[in-house]
Design goal:
Elements (H helix, E strand, L loop, with lengths): L7 H12 L1 H38 L5 E9 L2 H6 L4 E7 L1 E7 L7 E7 L12 E5 L9 E5 H7 L6 E6 L2 E12 L18 E6 L1 H7 L5 E9 L5 H12 L8 E2 L4 H42 L1 H9 L4 H41 L11 H27 L3 H5 L11 H5 L7 H12 L1 H39 L4 E10 H5 L7 E16 L2 E10 L22 E5 H7 L6 E6 L6 E10 L7 E4 H8 L4 E9 L4 H8 L5 E6 H45 L1 H9 L4 H38 L12 H27 L3 H6 L3
Parallel strand pairs: 4-9, 6-8, 14-18, 15-17
Antiparallel strand pairs: 1-10, 1-11, 2-10, 3-4, 3-7, 5-8, 6-9, 7-8, 12-19, 12-20, 13-14, 13-16, 13-19, 15-18, 16-17
Helix pairs in contact: 1-9, 2-7, 2-9, 2-10, 2-19, 7-10, 7-14, 7-19, 9-10, 13-21, 14-19, 14-21, 14-22, 19-22, 20-21, 21-22
Family: Belongs to the ABC-4 integral membrane protein family. LolC/E subfamily.
Keywords: Cell membrane, Membrane, Transmembrane, Transmembrane helix
Organism: Keguizhuia sedimenti
Length: about 800
């Protein structure tokens, strides 16, 4: 009969794990948090990336786009012959003011003509439910899903619209989505599904209503494989310039795609940096624990080596301890991350309208999770084990030599008599082993820093809201005209009911060049005296726009490599299309967008034109808002309106909401990790000082005094860790601020006092709970058993 025998070292491993199950579970929890965050964020990123690629390919999302005033359809044949052009489509697009049932203020709609042949062409629609509009029927439309959901619209409902100066009633016959409008953005930098939507109409019907038969004003183009987008765009710009084109642009500059790309980049960074921080803590914890364990078990290690076990066998024994605890956390973390990933995917599906968006855990992510966890364990364990394995067996059989007493700072200053004996013993214990004390302080500092990192996103969001939507933007309503108007017409808006103040603004689409770099943007032209839209410096003082210069945002200047005093070439994309050299007068830091600013008179002087306005900022009396909105719905010259509070609401519902969800999960994980670090630190201290504490009990010290010595040392280390943890957390927050900032939205480095205080509070609460558990074990300390063994 054969008996299954467990190897000796493996039996010892099982006993060690069981005896140290509390610390093993604490390590597993930290690993679980790191792996779960990696699986959740990485899996969500992969799911969105796969859904995006499939959606773009299946529904023929274009590679190049261009807008013109009006061009003949015969031009499409010439464009089709461009080298690199695979498929070309011209269509009609129009911005209309909408009267949506249940919405007091006017909404904006982008009317887009459908291909003449249903199911063909580029940027195809996917009908969620309903049907396509009938051919030639102007009153039937498809409505984008996000707009329909925000306004509770269904097939059969009607919407009022002003099309080419005429009031029309549009009948909804279907709800649809398109890869071109995964994020529906117009005017503001963020989607506002309540007040902006996309509607698709029959091509013949829309072109007839706009008097654009046999013409188009919007162009989409798919490139041939390996074709150069820049070369095609250059040819398009030359051909379409006479037709009022503002310049063709590639897919990466398309608003919806750009917004989604920014979100994907942030998710990718979060799924890499944050788990890396967590698993770095894991490696440190394992190193710290095994360093203490191997020190305590040095006699056992020596005995094993004297019996013939090689350094490799003994080292692998302790590496197995690390791998066992880490793999336990890894398996649970993969399961937890998968569950959280499905929840996050359902939330993303509400923001990003794909035909299908489901979380799927790839084999690559699972393998990466296991490898990362194992490497963290091996790295942390190897550093600790090698220190003891270098000792000869005969030397390791002896316990560490007791520390020699040397007068410390207290004795040298003659203060020892003024300090109680228990306190002196605590301070001497820390002074004798400064490296171990430093490692403990570092571990506790990491706990504080993780909490700071977890909460700082809330501070950054609050700062963006305060700075951008409260301090800089003080208007209630932004009105955009369908074409540039005389500035006097804009100022006449003051006569509308409830309007308290009007500040006209202009804008000019341009390409700004500096040396070999260039970028398209919009110059916002503001009046000299203004209160509703302020440009602020780093101290939040209003910046006066120069009479003959330009002001750039910091992000824009970084893209071009421009400094204050440099001269840039401004190429205007409409009108006479002139190019002018302009001096950069100032650079300001704004968290949203990459705009540029000029004085409205300076811009008109540069263009050698009269002062015109493309819109106006309005301050409105809340008591007369409804009357104003009713009036604005009837003004054909207005193409769209943006409400400041609505823009803020949109901001909170997109970027902010996604960040908040990720941050809440991060905070929960950080709390769990903090508890694990604090408990391990206290439990290791008890193992190290068990013999000393038992000896003190024999010498007559009470249990309370013995416990006070042990926990007092931990209290000193905890207090010392607080400032270092706050500094480390601030540094990590700064790193994330840089890595997560994108062109569309930058995250400022702002950490509030409340964040530091709450992080410290979590550390202290964790320390108290860990102290209570350790105190209980001190009370149950068996002096005889402890003095028999080094363990």
């Amino acid at each position: 009969m054969t008996t299954f025998m467990i190897p000796t070292l493996d039996r010892k491993l099982i006993r060690d794990v069981w005896r140290m199950r509390g610390q093993a579970i604490a390590i597993a929890i930290v690993v679980m948090c790191g792996i779960a965050s990696f699986v959740t964020l990485r899996g969500s990123y992969e799911a969105m990336l796969a859904s995006q690629a499939s959606y773009y390919e299946q529904y023929r999302f274009a590679d190049v786009f261009a807008n013109v005033k009006r061009a003949p359809v015969t031009l499409l044949g010439r464009i089709q012959e461009f080298p690199g052009a695979n498929e070309v489509q011209g269509r009609v697009v129009f911005e209309a003011t909408l009267d949506v049932p249940g919405l007091d203020e006017p909404a904006s709609g982008r009317l887009v003509s459908l291909p003449i042949q249903p199911g063909k062409g580029l940027n195809r629609v996917h009908i969620r439910y309903g049907r396509l509009p009938q051919a030639g029927n102007l009153s039937e439309v498809l409505v984008s899903e996000a707009f329909a959901q925000a306004n509770k619209l269904q097939p059969g409902h009607t919407i009022g619209a002003i099309i080419n100066g005429r009031k029309e009633r549009l009948h909804i016959v279907g709800i649809a989505i398109s890869p071109e409008f995964i994020n529906e953005i117009s005017g503001s930098s963020f989607p506002d599904h309540r007040r902006f939507g996309v509607m698709w109409m029959d091509h013949e019907a829309l072109s007839s209503a706009l008097n654009m038969r046999d013409s188009f004003n919007d162009l989409s183009l798919v490139l041939a494989p390996k074709a150069s987008a820049s070369q095609v765009i250059e040819r398009l710009d030359k051909l379409l310039a006479v037709y009022g084109s503002l310049g063709a642009y590639a897919r990466d500059e398309q608003l919806s795609h750009n917004f989604l790309t920014n979100e994907l980049n942030q998710t990718r960074v979060s799924g890499t940096v944050i788990p890396a921080i967590f698993l770095g803590v894991v490696a440190f914890l394992i190193h710290n624990i095994l360093l203490r364990i191997t020190t305590l078990q040095r006699a056992q290690i020596a005995l094993l080596k004297s019996f013939g076990y090689s350094d490799t066998s003994v080292g692998l024994h302790y590496v197995k301890f690390a791998l066992l605890t880490v793999m336990l956390g890894c398996l649970v973390g993969i399961g937890l991350g998968t569950w959280l990933g499905h929840g996050l995917a359902s939330i993303h599906a509400e923001f990003y309208h794909f035909p299908r968006l489901e979380f799927s855990l790839s084999l690559q992510t699972v393998i990466a999770s296991v490898l990362i966890a194992c490497l963290s364990a091996i790295f942390g364990a190897s550093l600790a084990v090698m220190r003891v394995l270098r000792l000869a067996p005969a030397e390791a059989m002896h316990p560490e030599s007791p520390a020699r007493f040397r007068p410390g700072p207290l004795e040298r200053l003659g203060l020892q008599r003024m300090i109680p004996l228990v306190v002196r013993m605590m301070l001497r214990g820390l002074e004798r082993k400064p490296l171990k004390a430093l490692l403990s302080v570092l571990g506790l500092s990491l706990a504080v820093s993780l909490m700071v990192v977890g909460q700082y996103s809330f501070d950054a969001l609050d700062e963006v809201i305060r700075l951008q939507f409260r301090t800089a933007q003080r208007d209630d309503l932004t009105v955009r005209f369908n074409e540039a108007k005389n500035i006097g017409i804009a100022e006449n808006l003051a006569s509308l009911p409830g309007v308290l103040r009007v500040e006209p603004y202009g804008n000019a689409p341009v390409k700004i060049k500096f040396r070999h770099r260039s970028k398209k943007t919009v110059i916002i032209a503001l009046p000299h005296r203004r209160e509703l839209r302020r440009i602020l410096d780093e101290n939040e003082n209003p910046v006066a726009l120069p009479h003959d210069g330009i002001v750039l945002t910091k992000k824009f200047s970084e893209i071009l490599g421009v400094r204050i005093g440099d001269t840039v070439d401004v190429e205007f994309m409409e009108g006479k299309r002139k190019t002018a050299a302009v001096v950069v007068n100032n650079i300001i830091d704004e968290p949203i967008g990459t705009l540029t600013y000029m004085d409205i008179n300076a811009l008109s002087g540069l263009l050698e034109e009269s002062v015109t306005a493309n819109g106006a900022f309005l301050s409105v009396d809340p008591l007369h808002q409804s009357a104003l909105y009713r009036k604005l719905k009837e003004v054909p010259a207005i193409s769209s309106l943006n409400l400041r509070e609505a823009t803020l609401e949109s901001f909170l519902a997109t970027v902010a909401e996604n960040m908040r969800i990720n941050t809440v999960v991060l905070i929960v994980f950080a709390c769990a990790i903090t508890g694990g670090i604090v408990y391990n630190s206290a439990r290791i201290a008890l193992s190290e000082h068990a013999i000393e504490l038992a000896s003190l009990r024999i010498l007559g010290f009470t249990k309370n005094e013995v416990g006070a010595i042990l926990l007092g040392e931990q209290a000193i280390l905890t207090v010392l860790a607080i400032p270092f943890g706050c500094l480390l957390g601030y540094g990590l927050a700064g790193l994330l601020s840089v890595l997560l900032s994108q062109e569309l939205f930058r995250i400022p480095l702002v950490v509030s006092t409340e964040t530091f205080l709450s992080s410290v509070l979590v550390l202290l609460v964790s320390a108290v709970l860990a102290a209570l558990m350790v105190w209980r074990q001190v009370q149950q300390l068996n002096m005889i058993e402890v003095l028999k063994t080094r363990e």
